[in-house]
Amino acid sequence: MLTSLRLNPDLLKVPSYTAGRSIAEVKEAYGLSDVVKMASNENALGPSPLAVEAARQALAHAHLYPGTADRDLRRRIAADIGPGWDERHVILGNGATDLIRMLAQAFVFGGGEMLTAAVTFPMYFVSTSLAGGVPVRAPLGPGMALDLDGMADRIGPETRLCYVCSPNNPTGLTIRRDEFDRFVGRVPDHTVVVLDESYRGFVEDAHPPEPWPHIAAGRNLIVLRTFSKLSGLANLRVGYAVSTPEITEYLAHAQMPFHVNTPSLAAAMASLDDDVFHANSRAHVLQERKFLGQALTELGIRWLPTQANFMLLTDLPLDADGCFEALLRRGIIVRPMGGWGVPNAIRVSLGTRRDNLRFLAALRKMLDGVCPRI
Q1: Helix, strand, or coil here: 247?
Q2: Quick check: 300 and 317 in contact, CB under 8 A?
Q3: Which helix (H) or strand (E) holds 50?
Q4: Which residues of the chain register pLDDT less than 50?
Q5: Which of 117, 136, 166, 301 has an alpha carbon 20 to 30 Å from 146's alpha carbon atom?
Q6: What is residue 371's predicted lDDT score, i.e. its pLDDT?
Q7: By C-alpha distance, which of 356, 368, 276 is closest to 326?
Q8: Residue 152 and residue 183 in contact, taking contact as beta carbons nearer than 8 Å
Q9: CA-CA-CA-CA torsion for 185, 204, 170, 283, nearest 10 degrees?
């Protein structure tokens, strides 16, 4: 019985992270045969074909522990950044969430503070609580934009990590290069800035953050990226962080042995050469978010000007939880945002054109009275 055990008080404080409902789960629960998932920001085009073939070939060696594939992938990532970068600047994780866990263990132990936006990726808060740290939430600015000046004002002596997610999940909004440069200049030396760019591949803004000069200058900055989105490898779990060699070497102490398997590493490496797939993925997202945005505007639905592969629908003229449930019964999985701090909103991943049309048709029916009005 738990009552007779000595429990970790930090673990008991960890807020739960609820993943999006799976297709199989919704089919079983509602007796459906055709379900589309538009809840978890997955790549609607599937995985990189080059990555799939590389993973298939690597499975022939599944009986062996990973060899040099980790180092080889880090070398390739560093080389793609530019001259003067090498594998010492890069560390891999079992998805970006694993790296977020490593960062919490490395920096916010013993009551250290993690500062981030009030509405952003929940795993920042989960990992901080798990490591015994203290999450600090900075309010968003006008239009739900990240307020980096306000965030800098909240940095205190115990602020050890500061997450900036751009494009931010779940809003899809980005920050400009000049905003980020000014922010980094205000951050004291005892605080590590983490720039999470998981959705960088879908950004159209002309002047996104440029983190490499800051790292090259020795700033305490870490950049997070992933193979889950643009490359379509979400289920293979490969993420990476880029920073100074001193920081990555320190983070390696929180890394589990054989943290990423060889088929996943092979897939990630091969995906870096799949320029055609990356271009198609980006073009699809840019096309569908324009299409869906125009259609939602015609329906009178408010949405944020996203730069990611999802859209946040805000101030719904419907009850968001009721809308979520009604869509589930029609075989469409979206993500309600009440638990993320955005009441009466849903996040919708950009699907295929067929998926998006199906979502719009269901939404029209609900606007006509199927889902209770507020």
Answers
A1: helix
A2: yes
A3: helix 49-58
A4: 370-374
A5: 301
A6: 46
A7: 368
A8: yes
A9: -150
Structural tokens at position 325:
């449930």
Tell me the H-state helices in 187-244: 212-216
Start-end of H helices in 299-374 = 320-329, 353-365
Gyration radius of the chain over CA positions: 21
- Name 231's Cβ contacts closer than 8 Å, sequence gap at least 6: 43, 47, 48, 51, 268, 271, 274, 277, 278, 281
Give the whole-angstrom CA distance, residue 92 versus residue 89: 10
Gap between the Cα atoms of 75 and 96, Å rounded: 18
Judge whether 342 and 314 are in contact, CB under 8 Å. yes
Q: How many residues does the chain have?
A: 374
By 3-state DSSP, what share of the chain in percent is helix, strand and coil, each rounded to 5?
45, 15, 40
What stretch of H or E contains 310? strand 310-314
pLDDT value of residue 373:
43
Rounded to whole angstroms, the Cα distance separating 327 from 362 reads 7
Does this model's pTM top 0.85? My answer is yes
Tell me if 339 sits within 8 A of 20, measured CB to CB. no
Q: What is the DSSP letter of 226?
A: E
Phi, psi of 224 (to 5 degrees): -105, 135
Tell me the pairing of strands 239-242 and 221-226: antiparallel
Cis amide prior to 245 (ω within 30 degrees):
no
Domains of the chain as residue ranges with CATH: 8-47+276-367 (3.90.1150.10), 49-271 (3.40.640.10)
CB of 91 closer than 8 Å to CB of 103: no
Among 282, 271, 210, CA closest to 73: 271
Euclidean distance between CA atoms 93 and 365, whole angstroms: 43
